[in-house]
Design a protein that fits this description.
Layout (H helix, E strand, L loop, with lengths): L1 H15 L14 E6 L5 E3 L3 E14 L1 E8 L5 E7 L3 E11 L6 E10 L6 E11 L1
Parallel strand pairs: 2-8
Antiparallel strand pairs: 1-3, 3-6, 4-5, 4-7, 7-8
Organism: Flavipsychrobacter stenotrophus
Protein name: DUF4625 domain-containing protein
Length: 130
């Protein structure tokens, strides 16, 4: 019983002393590297587009949204979001476009730095030809 009490007190002490993250959010310190698709890349109907990116930051990030839209109309063609608690992560997603008209598409990767709305963003444009 005495050993159980000592273990319990030790566990409470350790958990009460956890270091809090006091880093001031700075979207300028987020590193976003989109390796696929590349800017101005051309895709055709039925092609599988691989979206590959890495994100890093000196402190814990809180998630991301990956979106593809038609740059002329603003219509959203693909939208993925993930709640991630890490200082770095990789994105590996795929999408098959079946549109029937040529378009310049916009890929936006928005990273949520904290839960108060601080965000970092990277955008690239690529082309779709039916």
């Amino acid at each position: 019983m005495k050993h159980l009490l000592i273990i319990l007190i030790l566990a409470i002490t350790v958990s009460a002393c956890q270091k809090k993250d006091t880093t001031t959010p700075d979207a300028g310190k987020v590193t976003i590297n989109i390796t696929s698709p590349v800017p101005a890349q051309v895709f055709r109907s039925g092609d599988t587009m691989h979206m590959v990116a890495t994100v890093s930051y000196p402190s814990e990030l809180h998630g991301y949204e990956l979106k593809i839209s038609d740059s002329a109309t603003g219509n959203i063609l693909y939208d993925e979001d993930e709640h991630v608690h890490n200082d770095h992560f990789e994105i590996n997603s795929t999408w098959v476009d079946t549109a029937t008209t040529a378009a310049t598409l916009k890929l936006e990767l928005t990273v949520e730095v904290d839960h108060t709305g601080t965000e970092a963003e990277k955008t690239i444009y690529f082309n779709y030809v039916p």
